[in-house]
Amino acid sequence: MVVWVPGGPNFVIEISSASNPASAEKLVFARDVGAFPLWVRFGKGGIETIDGVMVLDIRDTVRGVCEAGA
């Protein structure tokens, strides 16, 4: 998702359940052109650290909600 704010910062948000190289590439591109990249992770697997890319790890929260509903 891209959020474009005229005269303000642009945001590129990737929401994914797995570490995907294509997602990382998109976020690095966004960072390199001056946007604020945010990677929201909610699934399993590790989380890659990328300089200049903010990662929001909600895996434990999602897991807790799923377990509470079971």
Could you explain the architecture of this structure?
The protein is α/β, with parallel strands linked by helices and 70 residues long. It has a domain at 10-47. Helix content is 33%, strand content 26%. The chain contains two helices and four strands. The protein has a four-stranded mixed sheet with strand order 1-2-3-4, covered by helices on one side. Strand 2 (11-16), helix 1 and strand 3 form a beta-alpha-beta unit. The longest helix is centred in the middle third of the chain and has 12 residues, at 21-32. The radius of gyration is 14 Å and the shape is elongated.
Task: Give the tags.
4 strands, single chain, four-stranded mixed β-sheet, alpha/beta, 70 residues
Question: Which SSEs are present, and which pair or pack?
Answer:
Elements: E1 2-3, E2 11-16, H1 21-32, E3 36-41, E4 54-57, H2 59-69
Parallel strand pairs: 2-3, 3-4
Antiparallel strand pairs: 1-2
